[in-house]
Design brief:
The chain is 83% helix and 0% strand. With 145 residues, it is mainly α. It has one domain. The chain is rod-shaped. The protein starts with 7 loop residues before the first helix and ends with a helix.
Length: 145
């Protein structure tokens, strides 16, 4: 059985947990009201109201969690779209430079495009770009040899 974060089995398990918790809350409320000597009709009304409040709190928590999760997914998709834009533009320049006739201009265009890709990885994805940049690697190669 798949117990992954968004699996059906996990959702059903959460539903069963909420069911048990709300039913237990209803039972506790009924028991407390009986112990206080409240009439049966009042027990029914008060217990259902209290159980409804507990259910509303759970519902609020779950919907708020889902709203935050969707907000985070939207932010990630925006970041991916921005990265796609920057990298595709830089790759178009590299493709053009590879097909051009003059080697010196091609090297400059490719170098600036590589720097743009590095910039986008560094600025748009600040926590994800942990590898050394191409310019750092070129510097290490030229000074090591």
């Amino acid at each position: 059985m798949d117990w992954g974060k968004d699996s059906r089995a996990r959702v059903l398990l959460h539903c069963a947990g909420v069911l048990l918790l709300v039913a237990a809350a209803g039972f506790v409320f009924d028991y407390m009201l009986v112990q206080e000597g409240v009439k049966r009709v009042d027990i029914l009304i008060e217990s259902n109201a209290l159980t409804g409040i507990v259910t509303a709190v759970f519902f609020y928590y779950l919907t708020n969690y889902e709203r935050e999760r969707r907000k985070m997914v939207r932010q990630r998709l925006t970041t991916i779209a921005e990265m796609n834009h920057h990298i595709r533009n830089a790759l178009q320049v590299i493709t053009y430079a590879a097909s051009s006739q003059t080697r010196g201009d091609s090297v400059k265009l490719i170098g600036s495009s590589v720097e743009r890709i590095e910039w986008s990885l560094r600025e748009v994805l600040p926590g994800y770009a942990s590898a050394p940049s191409a310019s750092e690697e070129r510097h290490q190669i030229t000074h090591a040899g």
